[in-house]
């Protein structure tokens, strides 16, 4: 069976130090409907990898295939992006109202707007009471993030590239988003590549883990195998419980939630051998 | 104007130079080069026009206008020199703007089809369009950094490059046209335009000078609109790489 997404020997240089790689030798596959957590400390290039897959940024080497075809085999980049949709960590609302944002995908592609589906999705993420005529720019950060996610789902991509999409959500909204993505993935067969610093979320939501460290994809494993016992020392340091019973990665996720908190030295620096 | 009067105008250069020295602005070299270049370029074009007016050869008019467009395209292109192919698009835009406006002026017999009219009016149209093109490119460069998130959100939703750029291009077109229309609102109240002043100094009736100035202002409003919209259209693809990724136009790490 052809993988939905194939990554072969992908390499990206650091923009500030072109002779050093941000990551290299990255090789992996995502099957249709798979849910992959992309884990690793800060600065490993996880967001950059998502942006490269979304064709928003160029790689410096290696190959990407979506549905067995390279980007240049698609008539236009938009055909690729319609299938592999990136949802940014910092949600950007398009000019206009909430409804304008929800109608964006159908407007761009000249397809009918499925209002009933949009209402169900908004309801599912806890935004049933948001006025659709409201200026999208006036929404709160969490409301923008959920609206941006619904806007992306209405495109019905085959691969969702989710960049910490629950980072600014309260626990209730986060649960609602996770539940929706669960249902959506099962119903639409959409695959997810999900960058998250929340290891509990990764364990709950994803079947597979890609673990990035030292500029490489160090581990590709089933989520329960990875969380039971990572194969590499770096992986073990990343998930090993500390004295408070939390993992280094989990400690980082907790630090992420405090707006003014510094990430410090990242997960690996904060972990103990 | 006598040679003495012309030479005496150097006193203004001297004043500028002294101010620069006294205030340590460090602009003396710029002032000297600017003064010499302005005088030489103007005398040169004066002699060229003298020759063209005498020979009345249409081919020479075409050559002069082509020269104006080339220089204007290179100059305006400095505002976006990281964008490959932008100068060619500016040149093509200026050519269309000049052809349309001059074509209308001549076919409606608003001005006479003589070098005395065609060349100065073309100079005003191309010069003003060059400024509009430069403003458009500066605005687009700012837009591409400020609205990067918006453009990439649209691309992520499967927008074409043209669709993704639509809002930014519209804002840039608007901001490049506004100075022209602001100028129209205050002309005569704040400033007396150069062409009108020149005609009055040369002995024309003020009302006759005003008629020509009105003609110029209206032509310039049309040329600003044509230049900004056309450049927005023909440059749309250039803001993206061959792979369809949004270019970085500003200074970046």
Automatic annotation (TrEMBL), chain A:
GO terms for molecular function: ATP binding; ATP hydrolysis activity. Residues 240-259 have a biased composition (Basic and acidic residues). Residues 240-273 are annotated as: Disordered. Residues 5-239 form the ABC transporter domain. Keywords: ATP-binding, Nucleotide-binding. Pfam families: ABC_tran. InterPro entries: AAA+_ATPase, ABC_transporter-like_ATP-bd, P-loop_NTPase. PANTHER family: ABC TRANSPORT PROTEIN ATP-BINDING COMPONENT-RELATED, ABC TRANSPORTER DOMAIN-CONTAINING PROTEIN. This is Putative ABC transport system ATP-binding protein. It comes from Paenibacillus methanolicus.
TrEMBL record, chain B:
The chain crosses the membrane at residues 6-22, 34-53, 59-76, 88-111, 117-138, 184-202, 214-240. It comes from the Bacteria. Keywords: Membrane, Transmembrane, Transmembrane helix. GO terms for cellular component: plasma membrane. Its main location: membrane. It is a multi-pass membrane protein. It is found in: Membrane. The keyword Transmembrane applies. Belongs to the UPF0014 family. This is Putative ABC transport system permease protein. It comes from Paenibacillus methanolicus.
């Amino acid at each position: 069976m052809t993988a939905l997404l194939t990554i072969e020997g992908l390499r990206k240089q650091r923009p500030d130090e072109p002779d050093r790689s941000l990551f290299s030798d990255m090789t992996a596959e995502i099957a249709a409907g798979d849910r992959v957590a992309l884990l690793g400390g800060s600065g490993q290039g996880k967001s950059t990898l998502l942006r490269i897959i979304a064709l928003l940024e160029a790689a410096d080497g290696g190959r990407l295939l979506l549905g067995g075809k390279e980007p240049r085999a698609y008539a236009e980049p938009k055909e690729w992006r319609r299938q592999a949709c990136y949802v940014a960590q910092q949600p950007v609302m398009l000019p206009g109202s909430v409804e304008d944002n929800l109608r964006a995908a159908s407007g761009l592609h000249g397809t009918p707007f499925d209002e009933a589906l949009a209402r169900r999705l908004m309801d599912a993420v806890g935004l049933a009471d948001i006025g659709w005529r409201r200026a999208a720019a006036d929404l709160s950060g969490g409301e923008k993030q959920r609206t941006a996610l619904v806007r992306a789902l209405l495109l019905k991509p085959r691969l969702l590239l989710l960049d910490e999409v629950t980072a600014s959500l309260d626990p209730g909204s986060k649960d609602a988003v996770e539940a929706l993505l669960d249902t959506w993935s099962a119903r639409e067969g959409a695959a997810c590549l999900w960058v998250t610093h929340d290891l509990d979320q990764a364990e709950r939501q994803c079947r597979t883990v890609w673990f990035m460290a030292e500029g490489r994809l160090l581990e590709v494993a089933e989520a329960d195998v990875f969380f039971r016992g990572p194969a590499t020392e770096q992986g073990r340091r990343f998930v090993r419980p500390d004295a408070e019973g939390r993992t280094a990665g989990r400690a980082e996720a907790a630090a992420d939630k405090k707006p003014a908190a510094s990430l410090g030295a990242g997960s690996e620096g904060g972990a103990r051998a | 104007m006598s040679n003495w009067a012309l030479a005496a105008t150097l006193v203004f250069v001297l004043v500028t130079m002294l101010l620069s020295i006294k205030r340590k602005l460090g602009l003396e070299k710029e002032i000297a080069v600017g003064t010499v270049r302005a005088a030489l370029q103007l005398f040169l074009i004066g002699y060229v026009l003298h020759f063209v007016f005498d020979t009345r050869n249409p081919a020479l008019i075409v050559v002069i206008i082509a020269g104006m467009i080339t220089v204007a395209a290179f100059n305006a292109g400095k505002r976006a020199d990281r964008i490959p192919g932008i100068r060619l698009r500016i040149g093509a835009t200026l050519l269309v703007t000049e052809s349309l406006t001059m074509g209308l002026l001549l076919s409606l017999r608003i001005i006479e089809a003589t070098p005395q009219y065609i060349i100065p009016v073309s100079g005003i149209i191309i010069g003003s369009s060059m400024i509009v093109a430069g403003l458009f490119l500066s605005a687009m460069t700012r837009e591409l950094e400020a609205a990067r998130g918006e453009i990439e959100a649209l691309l992520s939703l499967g927008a074409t490059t043209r669709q993704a750029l639509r809002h930014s291009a519209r804002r840039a077109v608007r901001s490049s046209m506004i100075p022209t229309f602001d100028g129209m609102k205050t002309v005569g109240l704040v400033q007396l335009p150069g062409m009108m002043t020149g005609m009055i100094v040369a002995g024309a009736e003020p009302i006759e000078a005003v008629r020509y100035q009105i003609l110029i202002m209206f032509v310039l409003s049309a040329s600003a609109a044509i230049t900004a919209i056309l450049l927005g259209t023909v440059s749309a693809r250039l803001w993206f790489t061959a792979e369809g990724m949004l270019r970085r136009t500003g200074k970046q790490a």
